[in-house]
Amino acid sequence: MHTDGARLVCIADLPPSPPSKTRYLVRKLRSVLPDVTILVGRWAPAELADEDRALLVDAGANHVAATLLETRDQLRAFAAHERQRAEATASPRATVAR
């Protein structure tokens, strides 16, 4: 797996796939990419929702979203944070002489 420069991994998981496979994938990714943000979108209607978010967080996910819209919002927040971080490191702060 090529991991140079990776800052985010987004996993889309659609039930009725077994949640144990997603937890396993998250654990493996976390072991290989300890500094990368892992976002899991486990999108299902309420009647098919089969897992507590805490189990995926315990496996190593930074964020778990239950809907596509929630996933989108988390991705936007991550992108905004990365944009601010990049701007802060790319441009030196202006110094005002007194």
Protein architecture, described:
It contains 3 helices and 3 strands; from the N terminus they run βαβαβα. It is of the alpha/beta class and 98 residues long. The protein has one domain (8-90). Strands 1-2-3 form a 3-stranded parallel beta sheet, sandwiched between helices. Helix 2 links the parallel strand 2 and strand 3 (63-65). It is globular. The relative contact order is 0.17. The mean pLDDT is 86.
From the spread of the alpha carbons, the general shape counts as globular
Number of strands: 3
Rg (CA only): 17 Å
Structural category is alpha/beta
List keywords for this structure.
single chain; 98 residues; alpha/beta; three-stranded parallel sheet; 3 helices; 3 strands; globular
